[in-house]
Amino acid sequence: MFRRSFLRRGIVETITKENFTLSRLTNGLRVITCDDGNGITGMGLFTLNAARFEGPDSFGASAVYEFMPLHGGEIITEKEVSAALGMFGNAYKVCNNKEALAVMLMMPRYHQKDGLDLLDAMCLHPSTKAEKFEVAKQQTRERTQLLTRDPTTMCFEMVHDAAWSGQGLGNPLTPTEPQLEALTVDKFHRFFRTYTRPDRAVVAATGVADHAEFALEAEKRLHFDYDATVTIDVPASPYTGGDRRVQNTEAPESMNKFQEKNLSHVGLFFQGTPVAHPDYYTLSVIQTLLGGGTSFSSGGPGKGMQTKLFREVLNREAGLHGMECITAWYSEGGLIGFYGSAPHEHAQRLVAIMMQQGASIAARVTDYHLEMAKNQLRSQLILLGEGREQLLNDMGFNMLVHNFMITPAETMEGSAKVTQESLKRVARELVERPLTFVVYGETKGSAVL
């Protein structure tokens, strides 16, 4: 039996922090808004129905869903979706971060109610027509073929597969052809109606002056159809660490500049923490401290060249193409580590340097370098706070995935308290946990971890 949660019941509780306001409604839906004084509203519907929750009968469901909103649904046509987006200015984006999916819109502030109606129509009522579903599947197939030609994408898929042993967060964002073939429209809707519920969703919006009115409108206009008889039992997705290597020394055919280079891609990652963990601030400072980039980064050299990886690696190792520190944050942990690339003949050297840097994260860091990293992180947060899309993304994903509302000001305050002692402690604890090591390229002679 399916339940349609359309009753307008009201707000259960509200929390305000700086210019952010969060409310939980009686149906479980959470609404978080920010009044930034802007005439443009960013609005997104964030739902816990991404790749992590897929199983043998639903692999690829979230990837296919990414293409379905633009094709209309049960209560809106493709032409009506196009017209509505055109009225808003055609600012539309779908994000899939392994745990949660987000559909985000930008619109003039006076179109907020219309935006909620559009999110409801195109996101919560996907088409049940087989022909529409097959079109979305074909688009997924074409994108998968493109992504598998991108070594960077393949490397990060391998990182997640190894780190979580192919389960939960290790599920692929890019389904294989057999998985796509096995996914039917009925299996897709069974997955969608199981996991797309108001208590597993967050509505985030910027440019909202009256939070209470917006929250009540969200409850009134967003209609979740889900199977109330199904109890969701999500198994834990523990980090395990692991090793994955793919021998591939021929660059794929590509029409994109620079991507034809024959490079080996290497990842060395440690277990991270959720955003709500006390060490989140220290890990954020570590990522900024290490920094990195590529020898031929877009816009030329100069950005971040005082970071540790630039000083100790890229400025000294002419044979490397790039190396940087990357983080990912999930509900049960995350990743922090190194990703780099080099011509195949320098792959072993890249691995050796990466291991040396991983073993000495807090070494050769003066108080000057630490303070510089904290200042750089604060400046980045100020700049990101000016970007409506990034602000909206952080509001929605942090609340839905981490059940945590953290403001840029809190991150700046927390990062300012990071000391040499806390830096060394966290760096020491990182290397004591199981490692994740992947190579996509020249694997012969790579280190055995």
From TrEMBL:
Gene Ontology molecular function: metal ion binding
Similarity remark: Belongs to the peptidase M16 family.
A single GO cellular-component term on record: mitochondrion
Function, in words: Substrate recognition and binding subunit of the essential mitochondrial processing protease (MPP), which cleaves the mitochondrial sequence off newly imported precursors proteins.
Domain (Peptidase M16 C-terminal) ranges: 183-377
Protein name listed in UniProt: Mitochondrial processing peptidase
UniProt cross-references to Pfam families, sorted A to Z: Peptidase_M16, Peptidase_M16_C
PANTHER family: METALLOPROTEASE (PTHR11851), MITOCHONDRIAL-PROCESSING PEPTIDASE SUBUNIT ALPHA (PTHR11851:SF49)
Residues in Peptidase M16 N-terminal domain copies: 51-175
InterPro entries: Metalloenz_LuxS/M16, MPP/UQCRC_Complex, Pept_M16_N, Peptidase_M16_C
Naturally occurring in which organism (per UniProt): Strigomonas culicis
Domain of life: Eukaryota
